[in-house]
TrEMBL record:
Designated name of the protein: Exocyst complex component
GO BP terms, alphabetized: Golgi to plasma membrane transport; intracellular protein transport; vesicle tethering involved in exocytosis
Residue ranges that the Swiss-Prot or TrEMBL entry lists as coiled coil: 82-109
Region (Disordered) residue spans: 253-280
Stored InterPro entries: EXOC6/Sec15, EXOC6/Sec15_C, EXOC6/Sec15_C_dom1, EXOC6_Sec15_N, EXOC6PINT-1/Sec15/Tip20_C_dom2
Transport in keyword set: yes
Domain Exocyst complex component EXOC6/Sec15 N-terminal as annotated: residue spans: 52-221
Species whose genome carries this gene: Chinchilla lanigera
Family stated for the protein in its record: Belongs to the SEC15 family.
Gene: EXOC6B
């Protein structure tokens, strides 16, 4: 039962499905009926569907037949009318054919024209397409042409920019063309070419900079000199604004500031030509002489190409090499100032360029690199200056060198370089300068001393008197009251030496200028140098003059007078130094002048030389002494040589009137002592083995003449018989022998108040033996064949006894 119900239900569903498919076939377009039919064949009711389809076809045929039967009369009428129309249609066809023939005949030219028009339109379309393509390619070609032009004119940085635009903007739009591929292949080559050419320009720039560094440095130093002159003018006026040109001002000298991002100049020359300008025209700025565009271009090109580090390393390496070349001084640099100037100009030019590169590029050089180069330059420069300046013996050249070094330091200081070591080195050169000054002034002093006449300066008019007083600080009321002509006590070398000392002080002061020293330091430097001048240079010159073989007593006396006045002038030299340095002598660390000591030493040396000279003169007169020690005759007058000697001494001591009293007294006493000693030596010399009492009497006359000279007071200031004491040894010895007062001598010997206190037993024995020999020799000649006479024998016995006692005194004294 259930199965019958299920079969029935399935039959109903299948019928409904077939109905749906049939409706779908009826309503669907024939092209889309395939899926519908597929659903039928996919099912299992294919036969039943075909039955349904046949039934439906038959139903439609019946409906069509009914419709045809209903409209049959109308169809017949329509056919009849259609047959009628056929004839008219034939006529119309004939007319149309005829019209078409005529139209064909008439339109043949139009067709030809249309064909031509078609071809023209095609060509126009092709031309338009070609123009469009060319318009797309033309910018590429123009850019490439521009690139080649830029390469040809060496505008490499713009060429690189053009190459970038060409590669990234234009070529991608026309990349399918063959010429574009050629361009793309050439782009790396062009980049390398630009890179190589820009590097070549940089090398040319570096070489040009190396050759023209001295010109750049010269210009920079001229600017610094102008600024210093301007500062000096400003210092003399009320200060308005800053004294020193700032570093920023050093860079405003450019006519147009170059940007660090892209170069504006397309010239490849490293140095611009600048004509030599007149001195009164404005000096061009140091950087105005330099075209830095090759550096900027090369830097930008390498930056764009991603090789900036390579460029920086190359640039720094090359500049280091150039620095070493610049810092190598020429071997003959010390010979002229131009040698030093060129050396400094090259160094300044090098660092002016580097400093400008530092401030106008971003990282090509940095402060550490500049500082490293400067430290190297500073050490090498100072070493070179120490070496070459040591060869210099001309103080003017040393002074010019110092001024040049100061200008060199000031110039570099404007650009921010530390220069303290240069000023420290100048203090070393200052010592050398002092040495060269001392050598120069040694020659000046020698010339002055050699050319002096060592005579008081005569003046015949008030003008001459004022001229001398203006040259040397001298005041003497008595001399002023005297009428003309009159004489200064000193000779010409006094004012000359005094003025030369002042000139030396001025020369020392010149070196201290612009060294940034305090007044105390300048004062100390001048005083120390002046002390060396006085204690070493002038002292040596005076000593050499004093020690000359041919110098006379008159010259020595005048030297003593001169040094006395120079010694008095030292206080004026102190005041002179104080006035020019504005440092009071009471300052704690102020060095005192040692001129007083110098002139005292020179005066003492002259005094000693006077004493020595006098003694030599006395010795020369004594060499003329011709005593006949065996004579028995007495002339009753002093020897001629001694009379001449006394006359010489009188005239000499008369010249000593201007000398200090102590000097004259010492000279006189020294001369008398030397004369007494020399006479004693004449009497006791070993060559004289015998002498007579007569010769001793003659010798006594000479001694009396000397004593008379001593009593006459050749030099004032001696107390009573002080000068005679020089001859006391001779006097007591001669009195002992002439008076033959041996008993008194032997009895009182050793007593403090004995009459012959100054007679030495050895001296007495020596002289007694000479007399004894003479007496024995005379007796032997007169009594060759006879015995001695009684009185002669007694006298000889007495002599022998005295001699024996004298020997006893001598031996007891030694024991």
């Amino acid at each position: 039962m259930e199965r019958a119900k299920m079969a029935e239900a399935e039959s109903l569903e299948s019928a409904a499905e077939h109905e749906r498919i049939l409706r779908e076939i009826e309503s669907t377009d024939t092209a889309c009926i395939g899926p519908t039919l597929r659903s039928v064949y996919d099912g299992e009711e294919h036969g039943r569907f075909m039955e349904k389809l046949e039934t439906r076809i038959r139903n439609h045929d019946r409906e069509i037949e009914k419709m045809c039967n209903f409209h049959y009369q109308g169809f017949v009428d329509s056919i009849t009318e259609l047959l009628k129309v056929r004839g008219e249609a034939q006529k119309l066809k004939n007319q149309v054919t005829d019209t078409n023939r005529k139209l064909q005949q008439e339109g043949k030219e139009l067709v030809i024209a249309m064909e031509e028009l078609k071809q023209c339109r095609l060509q126009q379309r092709n031309i338009s397409a070609t123009v469009d393509k060319l318009m797309l390619c033309l910018p590429v070609l123009e850019m490439y042409s521009k690139l080649r032009d830029q390469m040809k004119t060496k505008r490499h940085y713009p060429a690189l920019k053009t190459l970038e635009h060409l590669e990234h903007t234009y070529l991608p739009q026309v990349s399918h063309y063959r010429f574009c591929k050629v361009m793309v292949d050439n782009i790396p080559k062009l980049r390398e070419e630009i890179k190589d050419v820009s590097m070549s320009d940089l090398k040319d720039f570096l070489e040009s900079i190396r050759k023209h560094s001295d010109k750049i440095g010269e210009t920079a130093m001229k600017q610094a000199q102008q600024q210093r002159n301007l500062d000096n003018i400003v210092l003399q006026q009320p200060r308005i604004g800053s004294k020193r040109k700032s570093k920023k001002d050093a860079y405003t000298i450019f006519d147009t500031e170059m940007e660090s991002t892209s170069p504006k100049s397309e010239q490849d020359s490293g140095i611009l030509d600048v004509e030599d300008e007149e001195d009164d025209e404005e000096v061009p700025g140091a950087q105005d002489l330099v075209d830095f565009s090759p550096v900027y271009r090369c830097l930008h090109i390498y930056s764009v190409l991603g090789a900036r580090e390579t460029f920086e390393n190359y640039y720094r390496k090359q500049r280091r090499k150039q620095a070493r070349l610049v810092l190598q001084p020429p071997s003959n640099m010390h010979e002229t100032l131009d040698g030093y100037r060129k050396y400094f100009n090259q160094i300044v030019g090098f660092f002016v360029v580097e400093d400008h590169i530092l401030h106008t590029t971003q990282g090509l050089v940095n402060r550490a690199y500049i500082d490293e180069l400067w430290e190297m330059a500073l050490s090498k420069t100072i070493a070179a200056l120490r070496t070459h300046s040591s060869y210099c013996s001309d103080p003017n050249l040393v002074l010019d060198l110092k001024n040049l070094i100061v200008l060199f330091a000031d110039t570099l200081q404007v650009y921010g370089f530390p220069v303290n070591q240069l000023f420290d080195m100048l203090l070393e050169i200052r010592d050398q300068y002092s040495e060269t000054l001392l050598k120069k002034w040694a020659g000046i002093f020698r010339n002055i001393l050699d050319s002096d006449n060592y005579s008081p300066i005569p003046v015949t008019s008030e003008d001459m008197y004022k001229k001398v007083v203006g040259q040397f600080p001298f005041q003497d009321t008595e001399l002023e009251k005297q009428s003309f002509p009159k004489k200064f006590p000193f000779s010409e070398f006094v004012p000359k030496v005094y003025n030369e000392i002042k000139e030396f002080i001025y020369a020392c002061l010149k070196f201290s200028e612009d060294l940034h020293l305090s007044s105390t330091e300048v004062d100390d430097m001048i005083r120390k140098s002046t002390n060396l001048l006085l204690t070493r240079t002038l002292s040596n010159c005076l000593q050499n003059v004093i020690k000359r073989k041919n110098i006379g007593l008159t010259e020595l006396v005048q030297i003593i007078i001169n040094t006395t006045h120079l010694e008095k002038s030292c206080k004026y030299l102190e005041e002179f130094i104080t006035n020019i340095t504005n440092v009071l002598p009471e300052t704690v660390h102020t060095t005192k002048l040692y001129g007083t000591t110098t002139f005292k030493d020179a005066r003492h040396a002259a005094e000693e030389e006077i004493y020595t000279n006098l003694n030599q003169k006395i010795d020369q007169f004594l060499q003329l002494a011709d005593y006949d020690w065996m004579t028995g005759d007495l002339d009753n007058k002093a020897s001629d040589y001694l009379i001449d000697l006394i006359a010489f001494l009188r005239s000499t001591f008369a010249v000593f009137t201007h000398l200090p009293g102590k000097v004259a007294q010492t000279a006189c006493m020294s001369a008398c002592k030397h004369l007494a000693t020399s006479l004693m030596q004449l009497l006791l010399e070993a060559e004289v083995r015998q002498l007579t009492l007569g010769a001793l009497q003659q010798f006594n006359l000479d001694v009396r003449e000397c004593e008379q000279f001593a009593r006459s007071g050749p030099v004032p200031g001696f107390q009573e018989d002080t000068l005679q004491l020089a001859f006391i040894d001779l006097r007591q010895l001669l009195d002992l022998f002439i008076q033959w007062d041996w008993s008194t001598y032997l009895a009182d010997y050793g007593q403090p108040n004995c009459k012959y206190l100054r007679v030495n037993p050895v001296t007495a024995l020596t002289l007694l033996e000479k007399i004894s020999r003479e007496m024995k020799d005379t007796s032997r000649k007169n009594n060759m064949f006879a015995q001695f006479r009684k009185n002669e024998r007694d006298k000889q016995k007495l002599i022998d006894t005295v001699a024996k006692q004298l020997r006893g005194l001598i031996s007891s004294h030694h024991s």
